[in-house]
Design a protein that fits this description.
37% strand, 164 residues, single chain, Bifunctional nuclease domain, alpha+beta, eight-stranded mixed beta sheet
């Protein structure tokens, strides 16, 4: 598994599809774009910004339940890409035992941002769906995240669905 960092969530035009962007944390420059649904995009954004509503929404409720049950989220892993659908797992520790729960990447990451949990992707997923950002320095000079997002937007403008 390769550690990833969450670049953010953005809406791509003209399709208005929310896109989750993960980047390799070790500086190799691959970005993993994952198309997600709008409610999960909002949930991830609220988690990143630390926005708490008067009543907990689903991902906040899950985190509250985990806390009450004294369960710890160990990691979130994007494990597989099958027929253009990403799969993820949430690894938990409950009563001293590890448990793995299957999840959509968007839900798993919405929980990860709320629990400050590390996010990983399998090498197979990155090899199949990861995209290099042109001009990225292989020695780890990550550059400005806004510039990376701009470069990735340009890439998305030039790519067609068959490329995936």
């Amino acid at each position: 598994m390769i550690e990833m960092e969450l670049l953010g969530v953005q809406v791509e035009l003209p399709s208005n599809s929310p896109l989750l962007l993960l980047r390799e944390a070790d500086g190799l420059g691959r970005v993993l774009p994952v198309v997600i649904d709008t409610p999960e995009a909002h949930a991830i954004h609220r988690g990143i910004e630390g926005i708490r509503l008067a009543r907990p929404l689903t991902h906040d409720l899950i985190v509250n339940l985990l806390d009450e049950l004294e369960a710890t989220v160990i990691s979130v892993q994007v494990t597989e890409l099958r027929e253009r659908t990403f799969f993820a797992e949430i690894e938990l520790e409950v009563a001293g035992q590890k448990q793995t729960i299957s999840a959509r990447p968007s839900d798993a990451i919405a929980i990860a941002v709320r629990t400050e949990t590390a996010i990983y992707a399998s090498e197979e997923v990155l090899a199949e769906a990861g995209q290099m950002i042109e001009g990225h320095d292989a020695e780890g000079d990550d550059g400005d995240p806004d510039e990376l997002l701009d470069e990735f937007k340009q890439f998305l403008d030039d790519v067609n669905p068959d490329d995936f």
